[in-house]
Specification:
single chain, mainly alpha
Length: 198
């Protein structure tokens, strides 16, 4: 049975609801920390990232207003974030400087972006723009969190509320662009057939 994806409401409302989903990031971070503690080893990065991704993917699906299929989006986010955080954290030696976290975010975003792109609805317009944007947006999330004074030395699995709000607002605009063509097409009335002329 196929799940119907649609985007009810005006673009502004749809974007605002997605942006409000930034609240899933702190919950994802708490869940990851509760399971593995600090991200200071490959095991902690992989498992903590996957747990955080599971919570984050669920939160994003809930605020997507039926535009995302939970059977694809949630597992893709969990797997992509687990593998992405493993790659990013290990590459920077689990460091927490601004440069380290920005690099970790970019590397996490590469893996996560590809995984989520594959989980986007098939009708998504220029879907690979999501994969291209995720490294920059994920790095921006960590940068904003660090500059906002959050105690990043605690080695969280995901960035904090400042970064989450920034990420959600910008990614919401992109998601609307990727899915808007189908929504517009679905909302157009059917055209009557053109009568044949003799």
């Amino acid at each position: 049975m196929r799940t119907q994806m649609r985007g009810p409401g005006t673009p502004r409302v749809t974007w605002a609801v997605w942006t409000a989903g930034f609240l899933a990031f702190p919950l994802a971070g708490l869940a990851g920390t509760a399971v593995v503690g600090r991200v200071d080893s490959p095991t902690a990065a992989l498992i903590g990232g996957a747990v955080a991704g599971l919570v984050l993917g669920t939160g994003q699906w809930l605020v997507s207003r039926r535009r995302l299929d939970p059977r694809r989006w949630i597992p893709a986010t969990a797997i992509g974030m687990g593998l992405g955080l493993l790659l990013g954290a290990a590459t920077v030696g689990y460091g927490t400087s601004l440069a380290d976290l920005a690099a970790m975010g970019a590397l996490t975003g590469i893996v996560l972006g590809v995984a989520q792109t594959l989980a986007l609805p098939r009708h998504a317009h220029r879907r690979w723009a999501w994969a291209v944007a995720m490294p920059a947006l994920w790095a921006l999330g960590w940068t904003t969190t660090t500059l906002g004074g959050i105690s990043v030395d605690d080695q969280f699995t995901v960035f904090g509320a400042y970064g989450a709000l920034t990420f959600s607002a910008l990614s919401g605009l992109l998601l609307h662009y990727l899915l808007s063509n189908r929504v517009a097409a679905d909302s157009r009335p059917a055209q009557p057939p053109i009568a044949a002329t003799a």
